[in-house]
Structures are given as C-alpha cells and as structure tokens.
Design goal:
By secondary structure, this protein is an alpha+beta fold. It has helices at residues 12-23, 42-45, 50-63, 105-119, 125-146, 150-159, 199-202, 208-226, 231-240, 288-291, 293-300, 323-335, 342-355, and strands at residues 3-5, 33-39, 72-77, 84-90, 162-169, 173-181, 197-198, 243-249, 261-268, 280-281, 285-287, 314-315. It has a 5-stranded mixed sheet with strand order 10-11-9-8-12. Strands 1-3-4-2 form a 4-stranded antiparallel sheet. A 3-stranded antiparallel sheet has the order 5-6-7. The longest helix is centred in the middle third of the chain and has 22 residues, at 125-146. The two termini are 56 Å apart.
C-alpha cells in the first residue's frame, strides 16, 4: 500500500468495512466502490518511482471527482510483468455526498490519466499506441515485400519481434490479422484484454484482401517469369492466368526504339472491386518495384526487343508513387495525432451534416 485516506484500520478487510459504513450514509447509491488500475508500458512504468505512480493516480482521481474527503486506498503491484497501481475509492465522501458520477466513468478516468501524464511530460497510452502502430506498419510492409505467403510472413515478423495472429472463415479463408509485439505479451493479463492491434487499427490503408492479392500476384509473376525469355512471353503468360500487364517507361513511349522501363504493373481482371490501398492502385494494379524490388529489377532485364514497337498497355512515368512516399505520409499522420475537444468534435460533425 502506498497511500490511503480517511482509513484507520490496518488490514484491507477492516478498511473495506470502514468504507461500507460511510457508504450507507447515501442509500441512493448502490455501487459505491470505484475500483481500477493504471498500468504504464513496462519501459516507462519501471522507471517511475512508487511516489510518482501514486501521484498520477491521485491527481487523475481528483479530476473525476475524488476529494480529500473520500476514502481510498492505493496499492502498487511489482510482481507482474507490468508495474501497475490499483485503487479502491469510496464514491461517497464522509459527509454522505456522492462526488464521483458514474456516467462514462471509464472513459473520463482514461482521459484524466492522459491529462496528468501530459502535465508530467510522460507519453500517454494513446501516444505510445501511435508509435507502436507506426513501428508495426513499417515492419509489416517490409515483410510483405520480402515474402510471398502468410507462413513466411509470420516467420519474418517473428524475427522482427512481432507475433502475427491470423483468423479465417469458411467463405474467405484468411480473413483477419492481429499483430502483437513480443515484448508486450503479458500472460498474467491476457484473459482480461488482448494484446496488440488488429490490422485495421494499424493502418486503414492496408487490408487483408490486398495482402492476399499481392501474394497471388507475386506467385503468378514468378511462375510466368520461369517460362519466359522475353517481355512479350512474360506478358502473354500472365494474360493466360487472368492478369493484365502495364509497362511504365522512364520517358514518353516512342515506337520502334528502345524505351527504358521504369516499372511494371500487374493487375487481375476482376480486381476493380478492390479499393485503393497501401500497395494497390485501382485500375492500375500492383507496382512490381514496390511490392518486390528484386522481382521488378529482374523483369526489367528481360529482352525487350519484342515490345519496343508496342504502344499499348503502357503508363506515364508520373503514375508511379513509391512505397516510401506512401508509407511516409501515413506514418507522418500516425506520429502527429490531433487531439480535438469533445465540443469541437461535435461542431465539426454538425458542419459535415449541413454540407450533405
């Protein structure tokens, strides 16, 4: 125990009975006990002294209505993986007044903890989550580019310190993904909450269907490449499998001359149903240099004599947008969160409705 208020007994059982004695002074409130805990990420929590963690808890509790007339007890646990502080608070003060409103208590307490952390110059759970998601997205995109299937992707992510958990159903096969940092695993609390983040939480630009299509393209490209001596045969092999091939030249295409290739784009005939994603561009497809730079470079070296006069299915150079530029923009958004007050958020919602 690191702190207590208006409690005289020495044992936790007697202290709880003291709280019940005060609580009956306000018979209208049935759920008088407020309990919970604050757990900072291990890399921060272990650096905090007990007094600092207790100060964060008491200040946060004060922001939701706990006064110096409310009974409470604070306990710090060091035995689990993440150092954390528990609290038991009597919502009824010694005068019989309920000082802590029940409405949205969990949300309000979370916001209060973040306010205190920001006041003390500590990262909040939101900011830490943003950084972790950015790190996950960076490593995931690297693994997607280097591997050709989900089994190898999971092994590669394991090497990088992440566990990839896949979910599936009968209709779609693999249908979801969750990414967990190995260092964040806590077997003592895994029944209470799931560690890590869903793919949709890591990036709203990358979907499991896009990753599946990307792996399908990689597999088809490698098979087509094995049986092709030149670019024309490569294109024909892919067309037989239901893929279209668009060639992107460095400069404007000119017939009957050698045109240096900048990139090759692969699209499946039925892919128009897909939206733009982190890798996929609607009506254009996947850039080979983006999804696998080694594969893209290998195809550029194929004999091009058979296509120098072919002006069909080519793209202008400005179409290309590298993964670094795309991901860089997304990570920039992740690392620069905007905190909007509730009133301001409601104002913007009303403005959007009026525009409709």
């Amino acid at each position: 125990m690191v702190a207590s208020n208006y409690l005289l007994s020495d044992t936790s059982e007697d202290q709880f009975n003291e709280m019940k004695t005060v609580a009956v002074r306000n018979p209208k409130v049935k759920k008088w006990a407020l309990t919970g805990y604050i757990s900072q990420p291990d890399e921060i929590g272990r650096k905090l002294k007990d007094e600092e963690l207790a100060e964060i808890a008491t200040k946060a509790l004060g922001k939701i209505g706990v006064t110096n007339k409310n009974q409470y007890r604070l306990d710090i646990h060091n035995s689990t993986k993440h150092k954390h502080i528990h609290f038991v608070v009597n919502r009824i003060d010694i005068s019989g007044k309920c000082t802590v409103k029940a409405h949205d208590i969990g949300k309000r307490f979370g916001e209060a903890v973040r306010e205190v952390c920001k006041e003390k110059g500590l990262l909040t759970d939101v900011e830490i989550g943003i950084q972790k998601k950015a790190e996950m997205l960076k490593n995931l995109t690297e693994a997607i580019r280097s591997e050709d299937n989900f089994d190898d992707l999971m092994l590669e992510m394991k090497k990088k310190g992440f566990e990839v958990q896949l979910s599936s159903n009968v209709k779609d096969g693999i249908s979801g993904m969750r990414i967990v940092m190995e260092k964040d695993k806590n077997h003592q609390t895994e029944k209470l909450y799931k560690a890590g983040y869903k793919l949709s939480e890591v990036s709203n630009q990358l979907r499991i269907s896009e990753i599946k299509s990307l792996f399908e393209v990689k597999t088809a490209v490698k098979e087509a490449q094995k049986n092709a001596d030149n670019l024309k045969e490569f294109r024909e092999n892919l067309q037989q499998k239901g893929f279209s091939v668009k060639i992107q030249y460095i400069e404007e295409f000119k017939a009957n001359r050698k045109n240096d290739i900048q990139d090759i784009w692969i699209d499946k005939d039925d892919s128009n149903r897909h939206k733009n994603g982190l890798f996929f561009r609607k009506n254009i497809g996947f850039s080979l240099s983006t999804i696998d730079s080694d594969l893209g470079d290998a195809l550029k070296s194929l004999n091009q004599n058979s296509v120098v006069s072919d002006a069909s299915n080519h793209l202008k150079s400005e179409t290309n947008e590298s993964l670094i530029e795309i991901a860089g923009g997304l990570l920039g958004d992740f690392l620069n969160p905007t905190y909007v007050s509730k009133d301001e958020d409601e104002l913007w919602k009303k403005k959007r409705k009026l525009k409709r």
